[in-house]
Amino acid sequence: MRLPEQKKIGLQALQADLVLCDGQLERLGVSPDLFPGRLVSLKPNVSTRFGERLVTFRAVNQATLTRHDVYTLAHLAGTAEIRARLQAPADRWQSGAIGHLGNEPDARGWLGEQLVMVEYDACHYTKATIRDKMRAFRTEGQVVWGTSSALRAERIARAYPQAQVFYTPWWESPAERAATVAGGNGGRRAKRMADNLARPR
User: Fold this and answer.
1) Engineered SS bond to 88: which of 27, 49, 109, 156, CB 3.0-4.6 Å?
2) Within 10 Å of residue 74's Cβ, how many Cβ atoms?
3) pLDDT (tens digit, 0 to 9) for every residue of the chain, 201 residues total?
4) For the chain, what is the domain count?
5) What is the greatest pairwise CA distance in the chain?
6) Per-position DSSP letters for 118-151, written without gaps between them
7) What is the span of the domain harbouring residue 56?
8) What is the rounded distance in angstroms from the CA atom of residue 145 to the CA atom of residue 119?
9) How far is CA 31 from the centre of its chain?
10) Which residue ranges are recorded for the region named Disordered (predicted)?
């Protein structure tokens, strides 16, 4: 893909999502170096003791990256990954993940005639918080819930069958995503992750 086309696709995505990581842009066929970046160390799944990794976030301008803390950048990227998973058009998507506290969704979007209420969960919500958010969101539209843990996605899906719930590994590079879809290195955890990504949208 030529650089002008990459720039156009990247701009459209970043204008809708505000922040993406390198892997997300690469999966769109866009060179991350076309946009300002901020390299950080973080744990995508905040409930685990391990899993620290380096991630480069990208935005249309550097101010967006320096204005927000690492947690907010990750939350924006997680919400963006849900939009990518849903294949929701950028012009019918409103991200509010910067102000994600309380019972407001991280994003609202339209899939055809269906309004969806979107939440990204980095595994720090309590059961009570999940319950309250689910109740608040479903009064307005279809609830779509993405989380950074495949096991957590399964548990929430069982508890809230009316919601669309899936594993959301926004931080993965294209090679890592291919390995995840293929079952990774084997074992129950890898199968769980692959099954979660393979579920119908």
Assistant:
1) 109
2) 26
3) 898 899 999 999 999 999 999 999 999 999 999 999 999 999 888 766 657 889 999 999 999 999 999 999 999 999 999 999 999 999 999 887 665 567 889 999 999 999 999 999 988 889 999 999 999 999 989 999 999 998 999 999 999 999 999 999 999 989 888 887 776 544 455 556 556 655 544
4) 1
5) 48
6) EEEE-S---HHHHHHHHHHHHTTSEEEEEES-HH
7) 3-198
8) 5
9) 19
10) 180-201
Q: How far apart are CA 43 and CA 128, in angstroms?
A: 23
**CA neighbor of 199 nearest in space, from 118, 144, 122, 159:** 144
- Return the C-alpha torsion angle 73, 76, 78, 79, nearest 10: 170
Phi then psi dihedrals of residue 88, to 5 deg: -80, 135
pTM value is 0.87
